[in-house]
Amino acid sequence: MNRIDMLKRLEELERQNVFVLSKKDVEKLFPDEDEKAMEKSLQRMVKDGILSKAARGIYVNASAASRNAGRLIEEVAKALRPGKFCYVSLESILSEYGVISQIPMSRLTVMTTGASGMHETPYGVIEFTHTKRSIPDVLNRTIFIKGRPLRIAKKQAAVQDLLRVGRNTDMIDHEELEEET
Length: 181
Description:
The protein is an alpha+beta fold. It folds into two domains: 3-69, Arc Repressor Mutant, subunit A (Orthogonal Bundle), CATH 1.10.10; 81-178, no CATH class. The chain has nine helices and nine strands. The protein has helices at 3-15, 23-29, 35-47, 62-65, 72-80, 90-97, 135-140, 155-164, 174-178; strands at residues 20-22, 51-55, 58-61, 86-88, 107-112, 117-121, 124-130, 142-143, 151-153. A six-stranded mixed sheet has the order 6-7-5-4-9-8. A hairpin with a 2-residue loop joins β6 and β7 (124-130). The longest helix is centred in the N-terminal third of the chain and has 13 residues, at 3-15. It is elongated, with a radius of gyration of 18 Å. The N and C termini lie far apart (48 Å). The mean pLDDT is 92.
């Protein structure tokens, strides 16, 4: 892959609102490139500032990052757990709702049907916590918001997740919790 081909592909993808790519996504864009050449090309694209490496095997279109900064970390989280169901919950969403006073700085807390784990990215830390809930149960407890990469937990569901995983609940504003979303 050369610089011009990559820039063209990234421009096409950005028009489709795709700016976070896994290594497998890039391999599909350039199917004729063997594994070793692909690795070298990716390193070169990162070095040249065309791509930025968000996490192992996850790349961001560097020129699109600033235009899409609002939910970039959620896009990276989604890419880190392909084929798994993920939603924003725990402290991240409770802070957005105003239910807890603590604002997680540069941290996204995500419940997932995939593996638990922590990923440090240039866009913040992504903390995945495994849930054993069924997909239908998760769908009932979450909300889809247009333009947002991940679903978000409803207020009560996020508090239940917090309790279920044994997190600190001292900062919950119970009056705010009782208000409708």
